[in-house]
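Priority: low. Protein: 8-amino-7-ketopelargonate synthase. Input follows.
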Amino acid sequence: MSEKFFEFLEEKLRRLKEQNLYRSLKDVNSRDGMEITINGKKYINFSSNDYLGLSQHPLVKEAAMQAIKIFGCGGGASRLLAGGTVLNKELEKLLAQLKGTESSIVLNSGYTANTSLIPVLAEEEDIIFSDELNHASIIDGIRLSKAKKIIYKHADIDDLSQKIKETSCKGKKIVITDTVFSMDGDIAPLKELYEICKFEDAILYIDDAHGTGVLGQGQGAWKHFNLPQENFVVQMGTLSKSVGCFGAFVCGTNSLIDWFINSARGFIFSTALPPSVIASAIASIKIIIEDKTLIDTLWHNTEKVIEAIKILGLKTTNTQTPIIPLLFESIEDAMNASKIFNSLGIYAPVIRPPTVKIPRIRITISAAHTHENIERLIEAFNLLCQQPRRA
Ligand SMILES: *Cc1c(COP(=O)(O)O)cnc(C)c1O
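Result:
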Protein backbone atom coordinates (compact mmCIF):
# COMPACT_ATOMS: atom_id res chain seq x y z
CA MET A 1 0.00 0.00 0.00
CA SER A 2 2.57 2.56 1.06
CA GLU A 3 4.78 1.63 -1.89
CA LYS A 4 1.93 2.53 -4.22
CA PHE A 5 1.56 5.85 -2.47
CA PHE A 6 5.20 6.75 -3.08
CA GLU A 7 4.97 5.71 -6.72
CA PHE A 8 1.94 7.93 -7.00
CA LEU A 9 3.83 10.85 -5.45
CA GLU A 10 6.71 10.42 -7.84
CA GLU A 11 4.31 10.36 -10.74
CA LYS A 12 2.70 13.59 -9.53
CA LEU A 13 6.09 15.28 -9.15
CA ARG A 14 7.08 14.10 -12.62
CA ARG A 15 3.94 15.65 -14.04
CA LEU A 16 4.66 18.97 -12.30
CA LYS A 17 8.12 19.02 -13.85
CA GLU A 18 6.68 18.29 -17.32
CA GLN A 19 4.29 21.21 -16.98
CA ASN A 20 6.99 23.56 -15.67
CA LEU A 21 5.07 23.80 -12.41
CA TYR A 22 7.65 22.14 -10.17
CA ARG A 23 8.88 24.33 -7.32
CA SER A 24 12.26 24.14 -5.63
CA LEU A 25 13.95 25.89 -2.75
CA LYS A 26 16.40 28.73 -3.25
CA ASP A 27 18.42 29.23 -0.10
CA VAL A 28 20.98 32.01 -0.07
CA ASN A 29 24.58 31.68 1.06
CA SER A 30 24.66 35.29 2.13
CA ARG A 31 22.68 38.51 2.14
CA ASP A 32 24.06 42.03 2.09
CA GLY A 33 21.55 44.81 1.50
CA MET A 34 19.64 43.67 -1.58
CA GLU A 35 22.60 41.63 -2.82
CA ILE A 36 22.23 37.89 -2.31
CA THR A 37 24.43 34.92 -3.18
CA ILE A 38 22.80 31.67 -4.35
CA ASN A 39 24.99 28.68 -5.22
CA GLY A 40 27.99 31.00 -5.17
CA LYS A 41 26.50 33.45 -7.72
CA LYS A 42 25.67 37.04 -6.78
CA TYR A 43 22.28 38.54 -7.59
CA ILE A 44 20.39 41.71 -6.86
CA ASN A 45 17.27 40.57 -5.11
CA PHE A 46 14.09 41.85 -6.77
CA SER A 47 11.78 39.39 -5.08
CA SER A 48 11.99 40.38 -1.43
CA ASN A 49 9.13 41.94 0.54
CA ASP A 50 11.68 43.75 2.71
CA TYR A 51 10.39 47.03 1.23
CA LEU A 52 12.34 49.34 3.49
CA GLY A 53 15.44 47.19 3.91
CA LEU A 54 14.75 47.13 7.64
CA SER A 55 15.70 43.45 8.04
CA GLN A 56 19.30 44.63 7.83
CA HIS A 57 19.07 47.96 9.61
CA PRO A 58 21.82 48.28 12.28
CA LEU A 59 19.35 49.40 15.00
CA VAL A 60 16.99 46.52 14.20
CA LYS A 61 19.82 43.97 14.38
CA GLU A 62 21.17 45.51 17.58
CA ALA A 63 17.74 45.35 19.24
CA ALA A 64 17.56 41.60 18.53
CA MET A 65 21.03 40.99 19.94
CA GLN A 66 20.27 42.93 23.12
CA ALA A 67 17.05 40.98 23.64
CA ILE A 68 18.89 37.67 23.28
CA LYS A 69 21.39 38.81 25.91
CA ILE A 70 18.60 39.73 28.31
CA PHE A 71 15.94 37.06 27.64
CA GLY A 72 17.70 34.26 25.71
CA CYS A 73 16.53 32.78 22.45
CA GLY A 74 13.20 30.94 22.52
CA GLY A 75 10.01 32.00 24.26
CA GLY A 76 9.62 28.52 25.75
CA ALA A 77 5.83 28.56 26.05
CA SER A 78 2.67 30.05 24.65
CA ARG A 79 1.98 33.69 25.44
CA LEU A 80 -0.75 32.69 27.92
CA LEU A 81 1.85 30.63 29.82
CA ALA A 82 4.45 33.38 30.23
CA GLY A 83 6.17 32.70 26.88
CA GLY A 84 6.03 36.43 26.11
CA THR A 85 8.01 39.27 27.71
CA VAL A 86 7.35 42.92 28.56
CA LEU A 87 8.56 43.62 25.02
CA ASN A 88 5.34 42.11 23.63
CA LYS A 89 3.20 44.71 25.39
CA GLU A 90 5.50 47.50 24.20
CA LEU A 91 5.21 46.27 20.60
CA GLU A 92 1.43 45.96 20.85
CA LYS A 93 1.15 49.50 22.18
CA LEU A 94 3.22 50.77 19.25
CA LEU A 95 1.13 48.83 16.73
CA ALA A 96 -2.12 50.18 18.15
CA GLN A 97 -0.61 53.67 17.94
CA LEU A 98 0.54 53.07 14.33
CA LYS A 99 -2.93 51.90 13.28
CA GLY A 100 -4.88 54.29 15.51
CA THR A 101 -6.83 51.58 17.35
CA GLU A 102 -7.56 50.85 21.02
CA SER A 103 -5.62 47.64 21.19
CA SER A 104 -3.58 45.04 19.32
CA ILE A 105 -2.15 41.55 19.71
CA VAL A 106 0.87 39.94 18.06
CA LEU A 107 0.54 36.55 16.35
CA ASN A 108 3.19 34.20 15.06
CA SER A 109 2.83 34.84 11.33
CA GLY A 110 0.45 36.33 8.82
CA TYR A 111 -0.63 32.85 7.85
CA THR A 112 -1.33 32.00 11.48
CA ALA A 113 -3.18 35.27 12.00
CA ASN A 114 -5.63 34.77 9.13
CA THR A 115 -6.18 31.08 9.80
CA SER A 116 -6.83 31.63 13.50
CA LEU A 117 -8.60 35.01 13.63
CA ILE A 118 -11.13 34.56 10.82
CA PRO A 119 -12.62 31.34 12.31
CA VAL A 120 -13.29 33.08 15.63
CA LEU A 121 -14.44 36.38 14.12
CA ALA A 122 -17.02 34.60 11.97
CA GLU A 123 -19.72 32.49 13.59
CA GLU A 124 -21.81 29.74 12.08
CA GLU A 125 -24.70 31.95 10.96
CA ASP A 126 -22.46 34.62 9.44
CA ILE A 127 -21.65 35.22 5.80
CA ILE A 128 -18.15 36.15 4.64
CA PHE A 129 -17.74 38.14 1.41
CA SER A 130 -14.25 37.56 0.07
CA ASP A 131 -12.38 39.17 -2.86
CA GLU A 132 -11.52 36.53 -5.45
CA LEU A 133 -7.82 37.45 -5.32
CA ASN A 134 -7.44 37.32 -1.53
CA HIS A 135 -4.30 35.72 -0.12
CA ALA A 136 -4.21 31.94 0.42
CA SER A 137 -4.09 32.42 4.21
CA ILE A 138 -7.43 34.27 4.07
CA ILE A 139 -8.93 31.54 1.92
CA ASP A 140 -7.75 28.93 4.41
CA GLY A 141 -9.01 31.00 7.35
CA ILE A 142 -12.45 31.14 5.74
CA ARG A 143 -12.37 27.38 5.11
CA LEU A 144 -11.67 26.82 8.81
CA SER A 145 -14.60 29.00 9.85
CA LYS A 146 -18.14 27.69 9.99
CA ALA A 147 -19.51 30.70 8.14
CA LYS A 148 -20.88 30.68 4.60
CA LYS A 149 -18.56 32.12 1.95
CA ILE A 150 -19.49 34.33 -1.01
CA ILE A 151 -16.72 35.37 -3.41
CA TYR A 152 -16.98 38.70 -5.20
CA LYS A 153 -15.15 39.77 -8.34
CA HIS A 154 -11.75 41.28 -7.75
CA ALA A 155 -12.06 44.80 -6.28
CA ASP A 156 -15.50 45.04 -7.88
CA ILE A 157 -17.69 47.24 -5.71
CA ASP A 158 -20.79 46.77 -7.86
CA ASP A 159 -20.52 43.00 -7.65
CA LEU A 160 -20.01 43.12 -3.88
CA SER A 161 -22.86 45.61 -3.40
CA GLN A 162 -25.24 43.45 -5.33
CA LYS A 163 -24.22 40.27 -3.52
CA ILE A 164 -24.33 41.82 -0.08
CA LYS A 165 -27.76 43.38 -0.71
CA GLU A 166 -29.41 40.29 -2.14
CA THR A 167 -28.13 38.01 0.62
CA SER A 168 -30.10 37.81 3.82
CA CYS A 169 -28.39 36.39 6.84
CA LYS A 170 -29.30 35.52 10.42
CA GLY A 171 -25.86 36.37 11.70
CA LYS A 172 -23.51 39.15 10.66
CA LYS A 173 -21.90 40.00 7.33
CA ILE A 174 -18.11 40.20 7.11
CA VAL A 175 -16.15 41.61 4.17
CA ILE A 176 -12.54 40.43 3.92
CA THR A 177 -9.90 41.86 1.59
CA ASP A 178 -6.17 42.23 1.06
CA THR A 179 -5.37 45.95 1.07
CA VAL A 180 -2.58 45.54 -1.47
CA PHE A 181 -3.00 42.42 -3.59
CA SER A 182 0.19 40.47 -3.23
CA MET A 183 0.48 39.15 -6.78
CA ASP A 184 -0.88 42.19 -8.67
CA GLY A 185 0.17 45.17 -6.59
CA ASP A 186 -3.14 46.99 -6.91
CA ILE A 187 -4.92 48.54 -3.92
CA ALA A 188 -8.40 47.52 -2.75
CA PRO A 189 -11.07 50.26 -3.02
CA LEU A 190 -11.13 50.68 0.75
CA LYS A 191 -13.19 53.87 0.83
CA GLU A 192 -16.05 52.20 -1.04
CA LEU A 193 -15.67 49.02 1.01
CA TYR A 194 -15.84 51.11 4.15
CA GLU A 195 -19.01 52.84 2.97
CA ILE A 196 -20.72 49.59 2.02
CA CYS A 197 -19.83 47.97 5.34
CA LYS A 198 -21.02 51.00 7.28
CA PHE A 199 -24.30 51.07 5.38
CA GLU A 200 -24.86 47.31 5.59
CA ASP A 201 -23.76 47.09 9.23
CA ALA A 202 -21.02 44.65 8.21
CA ILE A 203 -17.57 44.00 9.64
CA LEU A 204 -14.59 44.89 7.45
CA TYR A 205 -11.47 42.75 7.95
CA ILE A 206 -8.44 44.06 6.06
CA ASP A 207 -5.12 42.27 5.55
CA ASP A 208 -2.52 45.04 5.36
CA ALA A 209 0.51 42.74 4.89
CA HIS A 210 1.82 44.79 1.95
CA GLY A 211 0.37 48.15 3.01
CA THR A 212 1.96 48.45 6.45
CA GLY A 213 5.21 50.42 6.21
CA VAL A 214 4.51 51.20 2.55
CA LEU A 215 1.26 53.17 2.26
CA GLY A 216 -0.07 56.07 4.34
CA GLN A 217 3.40 57.25 5.37
CA GLY A 218 4.00 53.80 6.83
CA GLN A 219 0.77 53.60 8.78
CA GLY A 220 -0.84 51.46 6.10
CA ALA A 221 -3.72 51.39 3.68
CA TRP A 222 -6.38 52.71 6.06
CA LYS A 223 -4.34 55.88 6.56
CA HIS A 224 -3.57 56.03 2.82
CA PHE A 225 -7.28 56.70 2.25
CA ASN A 226 -7.57 58.82 5.42
CA LEU A 227 -10.50 56.76 6.64
CA PRO A 228 -11.87 57.23 10.15
CA GLN A 229 -11.40 54.74 12.98
CA GLU A 230 -14.47 52.60 13.42
CA ASN A 231 -15.22 49.67 15.69
CA PHE A 232 -16.33 47.52 12.77
CA VAL A 233 -12.93 47.66 11.07
CA VAL A 234 -10.41 44.94 11.93
CA GLN A 235 -6.87 45.70 10.77
CA MET A 236 -4.53 42.74 10.39
CA GLY A 237 -0.95 43.14 9.21
CA THR A 238 2.42 41.42 9.25
CA LEU A 239 5.85 42.08 10.73
CA SER A 240 7.47 39.94 8.03
CA LYS A 241 7.38 42.33 5.08
CA SER A 242 8.25 46.02 5.35
CA VAL A 243 8.89 45.64 9.09
CA GLY A 244 11.67 43.24 8.07
CA CYS A 245 11.22 40.80 10.97
CA PHE A 246 8.69 38.04 11.50
CA GLY A 247 5.20 37.64 12.91
CA ALA A 248 1.89 39.41 12.48
CA PHE A 249 -0.66 41.45 14.39
CA VAL A 250 -4.26 42.45 14.54
CA CYS A 251 -5.53 45.86 15.69
CA GLY A 252 -9.05 46.66 16.85
CA THR A 253 -11.18 47.43 19.87
CA ASN A 254 -10.29 46.24 23.39
CA SER A 255 -13.04 43.66 23.46
CA LEU A 256 -12.21 42.28 20.02
CA ILE A 257 -8.54 41.80 20.90
CA ASP A 258 -9.54 40.26 24.23
CA TRP A 259 -11.79 37.83 22.35
CA PHE A 260 -8.94 36.84 20.01
CA ILE A 261 -6.64 36.22 22.99
CA ASN A 262 -9.30 33.97 24.48
CA SER A 263 -10.28 32.04 21.39
CA ALA A 264 -7.78 32.13 18.49
CA ARG A 265 -6.26 28.66 18.37
CA GLY A 266 -3.12 29.72 16.50
CA PHE A 267 -2.47 32.17 19.32
CA ILE A 268 -3.34 29.92 22.26
CA PHE A 269 -1.72 26.68 21.08
CA SER A 270 1.58 27.95 19.72
CA THR A 271 4.79 29.11 21.39
CA ALA A 272 5.24 32.88 21.60
CA LEU A 273 7.65 34.49 19.13
CA PRO A 274 11.26 34.76 20.37
CA PRO A 275 11.98 38.00 22.31
CA SER A 276 14.63 38.93 19.73
CA VAL A 277 11.98 39.01 17.00
CA ILE A 278 9.72 41.21 19.12
CA ALA A 279 12.59 43.55 20.01
CA SER A 280 13.64 43.98 16.40
CA ALA A 281 10.03 44.62 15.34
CA ILE A 282 9.82 47.40 17.97
CA ALA A 283 13.00 48.99 16.60
CA SER A 284 11.67 48.72 13.02
CA ILE A 285 8.32 50.27 13.79
CA LYS A 286 9.96 53.14 15.63
CA ILE A 287 12.02 53.80 12.51
CA ILE A 288 8.87 53.64 10.34
CA ILE A 289 7.11 56.14 12.63
CA GLU A 290 10.01 58.55 13.05
CA ASP A 291 11.99 58.47 9.81
CA LYS A 292 10.18 58.94 6.51
CA THR A 293 13.30 58.95 4.29
CA LEU A 294 13.18 55.18 3.70
CA ILE A 295 9.56 55.38 2.56
CA ASP A 296 10.41 58.28 0.26
CA THR A 297 13.27 56.28 -1.28
CA LEU A 298 10.99 53.27 -1.74
CA TRP A 299 8.47 55.33 -3.68
CA HIS A 300 11.17 57.10 -5.69
CA ASN A 301 12.59 53.71 -6.78
CA THR A 302 9.11 52.36 -7.50
CA GLU A 303 8.15 55.31 -9.68
CA LYS A 304 11.35 54.98 -11.71
CA VAL A 305 10.67 51.31 -12.44
CA ILE A 306 6.99 51.81 -13.31
CA GLU A 307 7.94 54.67 -15.63
CA ALA A 308 10.50 52.48 -17.45
CA ILE A 309 7.92 49.73 -17.89
CA LYS A 310 5.43 52.20 -19.37
CA ILE A 311 7.98 53.70 -21.76
CA LEU A 312 9.05 50.25 -22.99
CA GLY A 313 5.46 49.06 -23.28
CA LEU A 314 5.98 45.94 -21.16
CA LYS A 315 2.83 44.26 -19.94
CA THR A 316 2.02 44.77 -16.28
CA THR A 317 -1.01 44.95 -13.99
CA ASN A 318 -2.83 47.95 -12.61
CA THR A 319 -0.14 48.17 -9.92
CA GLN A 320 0.01 51.17 -7.60
CA THR A 321 2.66 49.84 -5.25
CA PRO A 322 6.24 48.45 -5.15
CA ILE A 323 4.84 45.07 -6.28
CA ILE A 324 5.40 45.22 -10.05
CA PRO A 325 4.50 42.11 -12.05
CA LEU A 326 5.61 41.55 -15.65
CA LEU A 327 2.92 39.47 -17.35
CA PHE A 328 3.62 36.78 -19.96
CA GLU A 329 1.52 34.73 -22.37
CA SER A 330 3.02 31.44 -21.24
CA ILE A 331 5.11 29.93 -18.47
CA GLU A 332 7.87 29.34 -21.06
CA ASP A 333 7.98 33.04 -22.01
CA ALA A 334 8.16 34.00 -18.35
CA MET A 335 10.93 31.47 -17.74
CA ASN A 336 12.93 32.77 -20.70
CA ALA A 337 12.59 36.29 -19.35
CA SER A 338 13.67 35.12 -15.94
CA LYS A 339 16.80 33.61 -17.55
CA ILE A 340 17.61 36.95 -19.16
CA PHE A 341 17.26 38.60 -15.77
CA ASN A 342 19.47 35.93 -14.20
CA SER A 343 22.16 36.51 -16.81
CA LEU A 344 22.30 40.14 -15.66
CA GLY A 345 22.53 39.06 -12.04
CA ILE A 346 18.93 39.91 -11.25
CA TYR A 347 16.94 37.58 -9.06
CA ALA A 348 13.26 37.78 -10.02
CA PRO A 349 11.63 34.37 -10.20
CA VAL A 350 8.56 33.29 -12.13
CA ILE A 351 5.24 33.01 -10.33
CA ARG A 352 3.10 30.41 -12.06
CA PRO A 353 -0.30 28.80 -11.84
CA PRO A 354 -2.01 27.83 -9.62
CA THR A 355 -0.64 30.71 -7.50
CA VAL A 356 -1.71 33.11 -10.27
CA LYS A 357 -3.73 32.68 -13.47
CA ILE A 358 -1.36 34.64 -15.74
CA PRO A 359 2.32 33.64 -15.45
CA ARG A 360 4.47 36.51 -14.32
CA ILE A 361 7.75 37.74 -12.98
CA ARG A 362 6.86 39.49 -9.77
CA ILE A 363 9.32 42.31 -9.19
CA THR A 364 9.36 43.94 -5.78
CA ILE A 365 11.14 47.19 -5.14
CA SER A 366 12.87 48.20 -1.93
CA ALA A 367 14.30 51.35 -0.45
CA ALA A 368 17.48 49.30 -0.07
CA HIS A 369 17.92 49.07 -3.86
CA THR A 370 20.68 51.41 -4.94
CA HIS A 371 20.52 53.67 -7.97
CA GLU A 372 22.80 51.14 -9.76
CA ASN A 373 20.47 48.26 -8.83
CA ILE A 374 17.50 50.05 -10.38
CA GLU A 375 19.51 50.94 -13.51
CA ARG A 376 20.47 47.26 -13.87
CA LEU A 377 16.81 46.24 -13.70
CA ILE A 378 15.90 48.76 -16.40
CA GLU A 379 18.77 47.44 -18.52
CA ALA A 380 17.22 43.97 -18.15
CA PHE A 381 13.85 45.36 -19.30
CA ASN A 382 15.57 46.75 -22.39
CA LEU A 383 17.21 43.43 -23.13
CA LEU A 384 13.85 41.71 -22.75
CA CYS A 385 12.30 44.04 -25.32
CA GLN A 386 15.04 43.21 -27.84
CA GLN A 387 14.21 39.49 -27.71
CA PRO A 388 12.60 38.23 -30.90
CA ARG A 389 8.98 37.30 -30.21
CA ARG A 390 8.10 33.74 -30.97
CA ALA A 391 5.05 33.23 -33.17
C1 LIG B 1 2.59 37.37 3.12
C2 LIG B 1 1.16 37.48 3.37
C3 LIG B 1 0.57 36.82 4.44
C4 LIG B 1 1.33 35.83 5.28
O1 LIG B 1 2.19 36.48 6.15
P1 LIG B 1 3.43 35.68 6.77
O2 LIG B 1 3.84 36.51 7.92
O3 LIG B 1 4.46 35.58 5.71
O4 LIG B 1 2.91 34.33 7.20
C5 LIG B 1 -0.77 37.05 4.69
N1 LIG B 1 -1.50 37.88 3.90
C6 LIG B 1 -0.95 38.50 2.84
C7 LIG B 1 -1.81 39.42 2.02
C8 LIG B 1 0.38 38.32 2.53
O5 LIG B 1 0.93 38.92 1.47
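The chain has a mean pLDDT of 96. The two ends are 47 Å apart (CA to CA).
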